[in-house]
Automatic annotation (TrEMBL):
<keyword id="KW-0808">Transferase</keyword>
<protein>
    <submittedName>
        <fullName>Serine/threonine-protein kinase RsbW</fullName>
    </submittedName>
</protein>
<keyword id="KW-0723">Serine/threonine-protein kinase</keyword>
<dbReference type="Pfam" id="PF13581">
    <property type="entry name" value="HATPase_c_2"/>
</dbReference>
<dbReference type="InterPro" id="IPR003594">
    <property type="entry name" value="HATPase_dom"/>
</dbReference>
<dbReference type="GO" id="GO:0004674">
    <property type="term" value="F:protein serine/threonine kinase activity"/>
</dbReference>
<dbReference type="InterPro" id="IPR036890">
    <property type="entry name" value="HATPase_C_sf"/>
</dbReference>
<feature type="domain" description="Histidine kinase/HSP90-like ATPase">
    <location>
        <begin position="13"/>
        <end position="130"/>
    </location>
</feature>
<keyword id="KW-0418">Kinase</keyword>
<dbReference type="InterPro" id="IPR050267">
    <property type="entry name" value="Anti-sigma-factor_SerPK"/>
</dbReference>
Length: 143
């Protein structure tokens, strides 16, 4: 069973809550564990906030499109924006200073997801992240 959610948002950090709500709903429908959904929320939040802060330099009301394409065994998340051009593949994925306040977004995305890539398509940046689950990863709850 495939489940797709598409959202047209603006570059407002407060909209991260809407992303979380939609990911929670998708995770519940797909039968994913709380831990799996939490990791997806964290990676998606980091990617979204990077678009707002770095792509749009904090500008509000700029367009951001988000699509979740989920199946029982995983998800692909696509985030599109018209901010400054950005190439994920050219970025460093390790923490330079583990005590710094920022600089963890890309590191977290690559730590939490199975993969990610970005490309510029016309005037749009497109970030795709994916994660596969297997049934043995599902939480069995607390004893």
């Amino acid at each position: 069973m495939k489940h797709t959610v598409a959202m047209e948002l603006t570059s407002c950090l407060a909209l991260v809550d809407r992303l979380h709500e939609q990911l929670q709903a998708v995770g519940t429908k797909m039968g994913w564990s709380a831990e799996q959904v939490f990791g997806l929320k964290l990676a998606t939040s980091e990617a979204f906030s990077n678009v707002v802060r770095h792509g749009y330099h904090g500008e509000c009301d700029a367009p951001i499109e988000v699509v979740f394409e989920a199946q029982a065994d995983g998800i692909e998340i696509c985030i599109r924006d018209q901010g400054c051009p950005f190439c994920l593949q050219e970025q460093t994925v390790h923490l330079v200073d583990p005590w710094s306040v920022g600089g963890r977004g890309i590191f977290l995305i690559f730590s939490l997801m199975d993969g990610a890539r970005s490309e510029r398509i016309g005037d749009w940046n497109e970030l795709r992240m994916w994660k596969k689950f297997n049934n043995t990863n599902k939480s069995s709850g607390c004893a």
